[in-house]
From TrEMBL:
The lineage of its organism: Bacteria, Bacillati, Bacillota, Bacilli, Lactobacillales. It comes from Lactobacillus kalixensis DSM 16043. This is Aminotransferase. Transmembrane segments: none annotated. Residues 36-387 form the Aminotransferase class I/classII large domain. PANTHER family: AMINOTRANSFERASE (PTHR46383:SF4), ASPARTATE AMINOTRANSFERASE (PTHR46383).
Amino acid sequence: MPKLADDLSMTINTRINAMGPSKIRAFDEKASKIPGMIKLTIGEPDLNTPDHVKEAAIADINANDSHYAPQAGKPELLQAISSYLKRELDVDYNPETEICVTVGATGALNDVFMTILNPGDKILVPTPVWALYFQLIKMCGAIPVQVDTSKDGFILTPEHLRQVLREEGKGAKAIILTDPSNPTGCVYPAEILKELASVIKEFHLFSITDEIYGDLVYNGNVHHSLSQYIPERNILISGLSKAYAMTGWRLGYIAAPAQIMSSIRKTNAFLVTSVTDNVQAAAIEALNNGQEDPLEARKIYEKRLKFMKTGMEKLGFEMSTPQGAFYIFAKIPEAFGTDDEAFANELAAKAKVGVTPGRYFGKGGQGYVRLSYASSTKQLEEALKRIEKFVENI
């Protein structure tokens, strides 16, 4: 096996060297090695991709659609995304100039960060949040400014945003907002988004909204977007991974004003050339003919949420009711203190249930754990039994 030449060992990108691996993934990998483990660690739907979506991909393969697609995406898919955004959010994006298809929402994030951020730029990141944001921002040489929302019910308030922009976030170029939230499941009300939009406009910021869970909202809540209030500033990111159980298909997209989209499309083309043909064919089918699919998934997840929330609250876990996504972000019982990492490690070792330490999601996460209820109902029932036994024994 080859060994890297000694004179090359210290010459790679110093930003990459300075970063550790994803703690969320590292914890999941460690938990996965324990026999009999029930993993509630990763946001991976247990549901299958709808059959009509799979059949569209198969038909595309059989039709020998195996050549380079247009770099920004097939025109039919760009139109399907535009129609979906109009239908769901009543926002208008020109498919010819204002939308780009990407390799998953993660690819979309990379495209956007690499397009708008220069080394030294600050970008505000309300926390707790999916921690990959921090690493992607740092890869651009930019600075993520964590904004702890734990004292505000995990919803960034306009007052808090204004305070941060006058203090540690002074001079920031952008803010990224995840709605519905991973890990908390919180959904931003329309009135809060309107007020945030005013502050963002006042301080001349880009806003980036990660709306990958936008189709998964519960309890009568409605998903809104900053694109409804400041479309001239907002860069909307979403995809099909969660609502259509298509995580492995890696299909995301970006919608933004044409003036910035021309640069985003350029970045995307440099990074991936184009997205896989048959994946785009599947996405066209999902968006055009699968409007009921997310609704069916939503019903399943909402039942699981109620089951897990009721059971965990009886065991002493505190949480606000998640309104979207498929996670519970629960404060661990007082008997365990605030060391969420130790709690998660002990739960994995003794009860064989994998949950993710809250501190891995940034400021405000300490003392909490995140668990995904996108696992099967049978697994959730068994996991709750194991958690109950573990808590009672302690």
